[in-house]
Amino acid sequence: MTKRPSDVSTIIYTPQDAGNLALQMIDTLRKDAGGGVRSGIPDLDKILLPLRASELITVLGYTSHYKSGFMNWLSKQAIKTIDPEDTDSVVIRVTWEQSVEEDTISWLAGDANLSVSNLARGLVDESEWTKLNASGTRRAAVPMWIVGHSQQDNKERRRARPRMTMTDVGLATEMIASGDLTNGVRKTVRMVVLDYLQRIRPDPQDGDTKREQMMEAVNRAKDCAIAYGCPVVLGVQVGRQVTDRIDKTPRIDDGQETSNIEQSSDKVFSLWYPMKTEPLGAMLPGGVEVTKNLLILKLLKQKLGEAPATFALWVDPERNIIANMTKPRL
């Protein structure tokens, strides 16, 4: 038997209710026409509707094809929407794969305009170390909270990396939002980033099969967006089959283990980093040359907006910069 809400009346809306709520939503959008989070990529933003409250944004990509990098980029765009005087708004990044150190090193590299590969190798001279310390000071003032694990803490405490469930994510998000960690000062969550779906540990109630568990994780990601009134960005790994195609940009049905992505997502992006699969200098269909800075992005779906659309973009993975094909000034 289907479980019913404790008060069924809370899920019933009269025709008048529906009309009033729709008008309220349009009025909110009208008064905040410049609101929401934009991608910061001019060509894409010509057709992309801003990422708004309660939306689930899915990012599809094969391993090492810049899925996490694109989500990091969106995180930074969300932070740009927060007024410097607003100390009560935050962006939350939940990562199952990267440690808090790895995630933050990437941010420091972009802020200090240094190579993240060199930082990871410890190749830092004195002048660069000075720049990094200044970036570290700035990072402390950036309202980006990270939920995940620390290599340093785990080593010192001799504990394994936590295998977080969506229940853990919900509890952590609520702890941040409620002000439990900031002397009772409540926080407004502007964006939640979940990196990535297949690494989310299922809760016991999430089903018995992998497919059921992944479908429920997508549902709970969407529920998080609705509950906190913010966009939630969900990374999804795709299968190896994409590498067998001429166009290796994932399709919307390539997300591993779940068809719920297409139904539940408000926007869907897919990524292909051609240098990972093609020789440098090769020409892709459409006359685009493969370089280390070429990133192919497809907007596969956006509710109430134009899609699909494909973009050849310029990317600097070392500094996490994405732009139109013309190289930006650093």
Describe the 3D structure:
The chain is α/β, with parallel strands linked by helices. The protein has one domain (49-323): Rossmann fold (3-Layer(aba) Sandwich). Helix content is 35%, strand content 18%. The protein has ten helices and eleven strands. It has helices at 15-31, 42-45, 67-80, 100-112, 116-121, 126-141, 151-157, 166-178, 210-228, 260-264; strands at 56-61, 89-95, 144-147, 188-195, 232-237, 267-272, 283-284, 288-289, 294-302, 309-316, 321-323. The strands form two sheets. A nine-stranded mixed beta sheet has the order 3-2-4-5-1-6-9-10-11, sandwiched between helices. A two-stranded antiparallel sheet has the order 7-8. A hairpin with a 4-residue loop joins strand 10 (309-316) and strand 11. Helix 4 (100-112) crosses helix 6 (126-141). The longest helix is centred in the middle third of the chain and has 19 residues, at 210-228. The mean pLDDT is 89.
CATH topology assignment: Rossmann fold
Structural class category: alpha/beta
Strand order of the largest sheet: 3-2-4-5-1-6-9-10-11
Reading the helices and strands in chain order gives HHEHEHHHEHHEHEHEEEEEE
Helix content: 25-40%
Whole-number average pLDDT? 89
**Tally of discrete structural domains:** 1
Strand % is 15-25%
Biggest β-sheet strands, sense, barrel = 9 strands, mixed
Instruction: Let me know the CATH homologous superfamily.
Output: P-loop containing nucleotide triphosphate hydrolases
CATH class category name = Alpha Beta
How many strands appear in the DSSP assignment? 11
Give me the Rg, rounded: 21 Å
User: Any idea what the shape is?
Assistant: globular
* N/C terminus separation: 60 Å
CATH architecture: 3-Layer(aba) Sandwich
User: Uncertain regions: pLDDT < 50 for 5+ in a row?
Assistant: none
Tally of alpha and pi helices: 10
